[in-house]
Amino acid sequence: MAPIEIYGMQLSAPCRIVEMTCEMLGLEYNFNQVDLMAGEHMKPEYLAINPQHNIPAIVDGEFKINESRAIAGYLAHKYGKDDTLYPKDPETRAIVDQRMYFDMGVFYKACGDFFYPAMFGKGNPAGEAEHNRLKEVLGWLDGWVSGGKYMAGTDSIPLGDLSLVAPYATLKGVEFLDLWESKTLDAWFEKGKPKIPNYGKVNGEGGVIFGGFYKSKVGVK
Ligand SMILES: N[C@@H](CCC(=O)N[C@@H](CS)C(=O)NCC(=O)O)C(=O)O
Q: Where is the GST C-terminal domain (predicted)?
């Protein structure tokens, strides 16, 4: 089988979801850098792969697709040797899907609303409303892992957790923020990290790069 071609950047949490999924599945892949800051996502070569010009996107043989969580579901469905990553039990799958949609629409969104105005010059640094929203969202996540399980109540990591662990690593990379007091979420995070092959390369380092970028923008060392 030819390697999966991933297009993205390490600092992007959605791109890290796809890399972590490939690692969990033991898939061969190439990571092709698409530098958003240099406008590479708007070049014809990339638009031919993903006309919506966001990252990540993948090419698997003749098949091209974007949207990180849809990519993760596709890879797990096509290449998973069992259903641990994307459980087939209808209720468990519904909860895993809920965690992924929640990440896209709520957690990753709340992180973006918090960080992006300062990083991309579209407004002032986050205020109290964004801070409070992120704390509220983290409180919901905390509730889902309070029994020492993964996010869908399973004993092994499914896609929902891979999705949520990506922005969580970003928050960790920004480290100086006083956003959460929860030991429970940190315990979930630390328990999951060693279960993800090459964790540092495929998620941890990207969070640190993001953190460095954010801090440079808001003038924090
Ligand atoms: N829902 C998409 C969001 C991807 C996304 O937000 N990508 C950002 C970088 S983190 C991007 O490519 N922005 C540039 C653009 O949309 O043109 C996914 O999960 O794949």
A: 89-218
- Measuring from atom 1 of ligand 1, which residue has the nearest CA? 67
Q: What is the CATH number of domain 4-79?
A: 3.40.30.10
Tell me which residues have their CB closer than 6 angstroms to ligand 1: 12, 14, 36, 41, 53-56, 67-68, 104
Q: How do residues 139-165 score in pLDDT, each as one tens digit? A: 999 999 988 899 999 999 999 999 999
Tokens matching residue 9: 């950047």
Residues (pLDDT < 70) of the chain are: 122-124, 221
Side-chain half-sphere exposure of 199, counting CA atoms within 13 A: 13
For CATH 1.20.1050.10, list the domain ranges present in the chain. 90-218
Mutate to test the pocket of ligand 1, among 9, 21, 34, 55 (most ligand atoms within 8 A of CB): 55
Domain with CATH 3.40.30.10 in the chain: 4-79
Neighbours of 121 (CB within 10 A): 8
Report the b/e string of 41-60 with b at 16+ CB within 10 A.
beeeebeebbeebbbbbbbb
Q: Per the structure block, which two tokens stand in for 97?
A: 């899907």
**Which CATH architecture best describes the domain 90-218?**
Up-down Bundle (1.20)
For ligand 1, the distance from its centroid to the CA atom of residue 67, given in whole angstroms, is: 8
Nearest atom (ligand 1) to Cα of 68 = 20
